[in-house]
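Reminder: ligand-aware prediction takes two inputs, not one.
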Amino acid sequence: MVAILSHGARVGALLFSASVLLGACRKEDPIAPDPLPDTEQPVLPIPGRDDNMALGNPSAAITSVLTPENYLMVKPQYALAYQNSRGTARWVSWHLSTSWKGSAERCDCFSGDDALPFGFFQAVTQDYTNTGFNRGHLCPSDDRDGSDADNEVTFLMTNVMPQAPILNQVTWGNLEDYARSLIYDGYEVYTVAGGYGAGGTGSNGGTTTTIAFGNITVPSRYWKVLVILEEGEDDINRISSNTRVIAVDMPNTQTVNASPWGAYRTTVDAIEDSTGLDLLSLVPAAIQSALESAVDDGPTQ
Ligand code: MN
Ligand code: MN
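Here is what comes back for the chain with manganese (II) ion:
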Protein backbone atom coordinates (compact mmCIF):
# COMPACT_ATOMS: atom_id res chain seq x y z
CA MET A 1 0.00 0.00 0.00
CA VAL A 2 2.65 2.47 1.04
CA ALA A 3 4.85 1.31 -1.81
CA ILE A 4 2.00 2.17 -4.15
CA LEU A 5 1.52 5.53 -2.48
CA SER A 6 5.15 6.45 -2.92
CA HIS A 7 4.99 5.15 -6.48
CA GLY A 8 1.91 7.34 -6.91
CA ALA A 9 3.82 10.25 -5.47
CA ARG A 10 6.62 9.70 -7.96
CA VAL A 11 4.16 9.41 -10.85
CA GLY A 12 2.49 12.58 -9.58
CA ALA A 13 5.80 14.41 -9.50
CA LEU A 14 6.62 13.24 -13.02
CA LEU A 15 3.23 14.33 -14.33
CA PHE A 16 3.66 17.64 -12.60
CA SER A 17 7.09 18.28 -14.16
CA ALA A 18 5.73 17.17 -17.53
CA SER A 19 2.82 19.58 -17.30
CA VAL A 20 5.09 22.43 -16.25
CA LEU A 21 7.38 21.73 -19.21
CA LEU A 22 4.49 21.42 -21.64
CA GLY A 23 2.92 24.54 -20.20
CA ALA A 24 6.14 26.47 -20.63
CA CYS A 25 6.68 25.35 -24.23
CA ARG A 26 3.15 25.37 -25.59
CA LYS A 27 1.21 27.95 -23.66
CA GLU A 28 -1.48 28.24 -26.30
CA ASP A 29 -2.41 24.54 -26.32
CA PRO A 30 -4.66 22.95 -23.73
CA ILE A 31 -2.56 20.57 -21.70
CA ALA A 32 -3.37 17.58 -19.57
CA PRO A 33 -5.30 18.51 -16.44
CA ASP A 34 -3.21 19.09 -13.35
CA PRO A 35 -2.38 15.84 -11.58
CA LEU A 36 -4.28 15.02 -8.43
CA PRO A 37 -2.49 15.98 -5.22
CA ASP A 38 -0.53 13.06 -3.76
CA THR A 39 -3.18 12.43 -1.14
CA GLU A 40 -5.81 11.93 -3.84
CA GLN A 41 -3.83 9.59 -6.07
CA PRO A 42 -5.80 6.40 -6.51
CA VAL A 43 -4.41 3.57 -4.40
CA LEU A 44 -4.17 0.41 -6.45
CA PRO A 45 -4.63 -2.95 -4.76
CA ILE A 46 -1.58 -5.18 -4.69
CA PRO A 47 -2.45 -8.59 -6.17
CA GLY A 48 -2.52 -11.31 -3.52
CA ARG A 49 -2.99 -8.88 -0.64
CA ASP A 50 -6.61 -9.41 0.33
CA ASP A 51 -9.03 -7.61 2.63
CA ASN A 52 -7.90 -8.02 6.22
CA MET A 53 -11.56 -8.19 7.27
CA ALA A 54 -12.80 -10.42 4.47
CA LEU A 55 -14.25 -12.93 6.94
CA GLY A 56 -16.17 -10.34 8.95
CA ASN A 57 -16.12 -7.76 11.73
CA PRO A 58 -16.29 -9.93 14.87
CA SER A 59 -17.77 -7.24 17.13
CA ALA A 60 -19.59 -5.08 14.56
CA ALA A 61 -17.13 -2.35 15.55
CA ILE A 62 -17.51 1.13 14.09
CA THR A 63 -15.12 4.06 13.93
CA SER A 64 -16.96 6.39 16.28
CA VAL A 65 -15.76 8.23 19.38
CA LEU A 66 -19.11 7.26 20.86
CA THR A 67 -18.04 3.58 20.95
CA PRO A 68 -14.72 3.60 22.84
CA GLU A 69 -15.22 -0.03 23.86
CA ASN A 70 -15.55 -1.20 20.27
CA TYR A 71 -13.68 1.31 18.12
CA LEU A 72 -12.84 0.10 14.62
CA MET A 73 -9.38 0.97 13.28
CA VAL A 74 -8.70 -0.07 9.70
CA LYS A 75 -5.12 0.16 8.55
CA PRO A 76 -3.78 -1.09 5.24
CA GLN A 77 -1.81 -3.76 7.13
CA TYR A 78 -4.52 -5.02 9.55
CA ALA A 79 -7.78 -4.05 11.20
CA LEU A 80 -8.74 -4.06 14.87
CA ALA A 81 -11.40 -3.11 17.37
CA TYR A 82 -9.97 -1.06 20.24
CA GLN A 83 -11.40 -1.42 23.75
CA ASN A 84 -10.54 1.70 25.70
CA SER A 85 -11.26 0.30 29.17
CA ARG A 86 -8.69 -2.49 28.57
CA GLY A 87 -6.22 -0.23 26.76
CA THR A 88 -5.83 -2.84 24.01
CA ALA A 89 -7.59 -4.34 21.03
CA ARG A 90 -10.49 -6.75 21.44
CA TRP A 91 -9.41 -8.45 18.25
CA VAL A 92 -6.97 -7.89 15.39
CA SER A 93 -7.69 -9.33 11.93
CA TRP A 94 -5.30 -9.77 9.01
CA HIS A 95 -4.65 -11.65 5.79
CA LEU A 96 -1.35 -13.36 5.05
CA SER A 97 0.04 -14.49 1.73
CA THR A 98 3.44 -14.34 0.07
CA SER A 99 2.33 -10.99 -1.38
CA TRP A 100 2.73 -9.39 2.05
CA LYS A 101 6.26 -10.70 2.42
CA GLY A 102 9.52 -8.97 1.57
CA SER A 103 12.90 -8.23 3.01
CA ALA A 104 12.24 -5.22 5.26
CA GLU A 105 14.16 -5.35 8.52
CA ARG A 106 12.25 -5.77 11.76
CA CYS A 107 12.10 -2.15 12.93
CA ASP A 108 11.54 -2.75 16.68
CA CYS A 109 10.02 0.73 16.67
CA PHE A 110 7.17 0.38 19.18
CA SER A 111 5.17 3.59 19.31
CA GLY A 112 1.85 4.98 20.48
CA ASP A 113 -0.98 4.94 17.97
CA ASP A 114 -1.84 8.54 17.12
CA ALA A 115 -4.89 7.35 15.21
CA LEU A 116 -6.70 6.84 18.53
CA PRO A 117 -9.17 9.65 19.19
CA PHE A 118 -8.36 12.35 21.71
CA GLY A 119 -9.42 11.21 25.17
CA PHE A 120 -8.83 7.50 24.54
CA PHE A 121 -6.04 5.82 26.52
CA GLN A 122 -2.97 5.60 24.30
CA ALA A 123 -0.37 3.03 25.40
CA VAL A 124 3.31 3.81 25.06
CA THR A 125 6.16 1.35 25.06
CA GLN A 126 7.30 2.38 28.57
CA ASP A 127 4.00 1.09 29.96
CA TYR A 128 5.49 -2.40 29.61
CA THR A 129 8.90 -1.70 31.14
CA ASN A 130 9.70 -3.98 34.11
CA THR A 131 6.19 -5.44 34.12
CA GLY A 132 7.39 -8.98 33.41
CA PHE A 133 5.36 -9.00 30.19
CA ASN A 134 6.47 -8.70 26.59
CA ARG A 135 4.95 -6.28 24.13
CA GLY A 136 3.27 -9.11 22.22
CA HIS A 137 2.30 -8.44 18.63
CA LEU A 138 -1.08 -9.62 17.47
CA CYS A 139 -0.39 -9.16 13.74
CA PRO A 140 3.24 -10.36 13.74
CA SER A 141 6.10 -8.22 12.53
CA ASP A 142 7.20 -11.10 10.29
CA ASP A 143 3.80 -11.17 8.56
CA ARG A 144 4.33 -7.60 7.36
CA ASP A 145 7.83 -7.10 6.00
CA GLY A 146 6.92 -6.12 2.45
CA SER A 147 8.20 -2.61 3.15
CA ASP A 148 9.60 -0.63 6.06
CA ALA A 149 6.30 1.21 6.35
CA ASP A 150 4.30 -2.04 6.51
CA ASN A 151 6.58 -3.38 9.21
CA GLU A 152 6.48 -0.18 11.27
CA VAL A 153 2.70 -0.28 11.50
CA THR A 154 2.84 -3.66 13.29
CA PHE A 155 4.74 -1.90 16.10
CA LEU A 156 1.89 0.46 16.90
CA MET A 157 0.86 -0.21 20.48
CA THR A 158 -2.76 -0.86 19.41
CA ASN A 159 -1.42 -4.08 17.82
CA VAL A 160 0.34 -5.04 21.06
CA MET A 161 -0.84 -6.74 24.26
CA PRO A 162 0.96 -7.88 27.42
CA GLN A 163 2.09 -11.46 26.87
CA ALA A 164 4.07 -13.67 29.21
CA PRO A 165 7.52 -13.95 27.59
CA ILE A 166 7.31 -17.75 27.23
CA LEU A 167 3.91 -17.50 25.58
CA ASN A 168 5.10 -14.78 23.22
CA GLN A 169 8.43 -16.30 22.33
CA VAL A 170 7.62 -20.00 22.39
CA THR A 171 4.08 -21.31 22.14
CA TRP A 172 2.38 -18.35 20.43
CA GLY A 173 5.48 -17.72 18.34
CA ASN A 174 5.59 -21.32 17.15
CA LEU A 175 2.02 -21.05 15.85
CA GLU A 176 2.96 -17.82 14.05
CA ASP A 177 5.89 -19.62 12.43
CA TYR A 178 3.64 -22.51 11.42
CA ALA A 179 1.10 -20.15 9.81
CA ARG A 180 3.85 -18.40 7.86
CA SER A 181 5.24 -21.74 6.68
CA LEU A 182 1.90 -22.49 5.02
CA ILE A 183 2.14 -19.57 2.59
CA TYR A 184 5.22 -21.18 1.07
CA ASP A 185 3.21 -24.36 0.50
CA GLY A 186 0.64 -22.58 -1.68
CA TYR A 187 -1.80 -21.34 0.96
CA GLU A 188 -3.11 -18.00 2.14
CA VAL A 189 -4.28 -17.48 5.72
CA TYR A 190 -6.88 -15.28 7.39
CA THR A 191 -6.26 -14.75 11.10
CA VAL A 192 -8.19 -13.11 13.92
CA ALA A 193 -6.61 -12.97 17.38
CA GLY A 194 -6.98 -11.34 20.75
CA GLY A 195 -6.97 -11.78 24.48
CA TYR A 196 -9.71 -12.05 27.08
CA GLY A 197 -10.06 -12.25 30.83
CA ALA A 198 -7.75 -10.58 33.33
CA GLY A 199 -4.73 -11.96 35.15
CA GLY A 200 -1.55 -13.32 33.60
CA THR A 201 1.72 -14.58 35.03
CA GLY A 202 4.81 -12.97 33.55
CA SER A 203 8.47 -13.24 34.41
CA ASN A 204 7.95 -11.44 37.76
CA GLY A 205 5.72 -14.27 38.97
CA GLY A 206 2.39 -13.92 40.74
CA THR A 207 -0.73 -12.81 38.95
CA THR A 208 -0.91 -9.41 37.28
CA THR A 209 -4.31 -8.12 36.24
CA THR A 210 -3.30 -4.68 34.95
CA ILE A 211 -0.23 -2.63 34.05
CA ALA A 212 0.18 1.07 33.20
CA PHE A 213 -1.50 2.18 36.43
CA GLY A 214 -4.59 0.14 35.64
CA ASN A 215 -4.96 1.39 32.09
CA ILE A 216 -3.92 -1.86 30.36
CA THR A 217 -5.57 -5.15 31.28
CA VAL A 218 -3.34 -8.21 31.21
CA PRO A 219 -5.40 -10.95 29.54
CA SER A 220 -5.59 -14.32 31.26
CA ARG A 221 -6.03 -16.06 27.91
CA TYR A 222 -4.96 -15.54 24.32
CA TRP A 223 -6.94 -16.90 21.37
CA LYS A 224 -6.41 -17.10 17.65
CA VAL A 225 -8.45 -18.40 14.72
CA LEU A 226 -6.81 -19.20 11.38
CA VAL A 227 -8.63 -19.99 8.14
CA ILE A 228 -6.37 -21.66 5.60
CA LEU A 229 -7.16 -21.63 1.89
CA GLU A 230 -5.28 -22.63 -1.20
CA GLU A 231 -3.97 -19.43 -2.73
CA GLY A 232 -6.59 -17.97 -5.03
CA GLU A 233 -9.29 -15.38 -5.65
CA ASP A 234 -12.79 -14.79 -4.29
CA ASP A 235 -11.79 -16.26 -0.96
CA ILE A 236 -15.03 -15.92 1.03
CA ASN A 237 -16.86 -17.95 -1.63
CA ARG A 238 -14.25 -20.71 -1.64
CA ILE A 239 -14.67 -21.48 2.05
CA SER A 240 -16.44 -24.81 2.50
CA SER A 241 -17.12 -27.15 5.38
CA ASN A 242 -13.83 -28.84 4.41
CA THR A 243 -11.73 -25.70 4.84
CA ARG A 244 -9.06 -26.06 7.49
CA VAL A 245 -9.74 -23.83 10.49
CA ILE A 246 -7.39 -23.77 13.48
CA ALA A 247 -8.62 -22.24 16.73
CA VAL A 248 -6.43 -22.05 19.83
CA ASP A 249 -6.92 -20.71 23.36
CA MET A 250 -3.78 -20.45 25.51
CA PRO A 251 -3.04 -19.31 29.06
CA ASN A 252 -0.97 -16.15 29.47
CA THR A 253 1.66 -17.80 31.64
CA GLN A 254 5.30 -18.83 31.77
CA THR A 255 4.36 -22.52 31.85
CA VAL A 256 2.26 -22.51 28.68
CA ASN A 257 5.13 -24.25 26.87
CA ALA A 258 4.54 -27.41 28.91
CA SER A 259 2.45 -28.39 25.88
CA PRO A 260 3.00 -27.59 22.19
CA TRP A 261 0.64 -25.14 20.50
CA GLY A 262 -1.37 -27.94 18.95
CA ALA A 263 -2.51 -29.07 22.40
CA TYR A 264 -4.34 -25.77 22.83
CA ARG A 265 -6.64 -26.33 19.85
CA THR A 266 -10.32 -25.84 20.53
CA THR A 267 -13.45 -24.88 18.62
CA VAL A 268 -14.29 -21.45 17.28
CA ASP A 269 -17.60 -21.86 19.10
CA ALA A 270 -15.75 -22.09 22.42
CA ILE A 271 -13.81 -18.90 21.65
CA GLU A 272 -17.01 -17.13 20.67
CA ASP A 273 -18.56 -18.19 23.99
CA SER A 274 -15.54 -16.92 25.93
CA THR A 275 -15.16 -13.61 24.09
CA GLY A 276 -18.68 -12.68 23.02
CA LEU A 277 -17.46 -12.22 19.44
CA ASP A 278 -18.97 -13.58 16.24
CA LEU A 279 -16.03 -14.91 14.27
CA LEU A 280 -16.17 -15.78 10.57
CA SER A 281 -19.47 -13.90 10.43
CA LEU A 282 -19.39 -13.41 6.65
CA VAL A 283 -19.08 -17.15 6.03
CA PRO A 284 -22.50 -18.59 5.06
CA ALA A 285 -24.32 -19.77 8.18
CA ALA A 286 -24.37 -23.51 7.47
CA ILE A 287 -20.67 -23.61 6.63
CA GLN A 288 -19.88 -21.31 9.55
CA SER A 289 -21.55 -23.59 12.07
CA ALA A 290 -19.85 -26.68 10.65
CA LEU A 291 -16.43 -25.04 10.74
CA GLU A 292 -16.92 -23.53 14.17
CA SER A 293 -17.90 -26.74 15.94
CA ALA A 294 -14.88 -28.81 14.89
CA VAL A 295 -11.44 -29.08 16.51
CA ASP A 296 -8.57 -29.13 14.02
CA ASP A 297 -6.47 -32.30 14.03
CA GLY A 298 -4.15 -31.43 11.15
CA PRO A 299 -0.36 -31.22 11.21
CA THR A 300 1.28 -28.71 13.56
CA GLN A 301 4.62 -28.32 11.84
MN1 MN B 1 -6.94 -14.70 -1.92
MN1 MN C 1 -19.17 -17.10 13.97
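The first strand starts at residue 71 and ends at 74. Residues 1-29 have pLDDT under 50 and may be disordered. We will return to this case in the review session.
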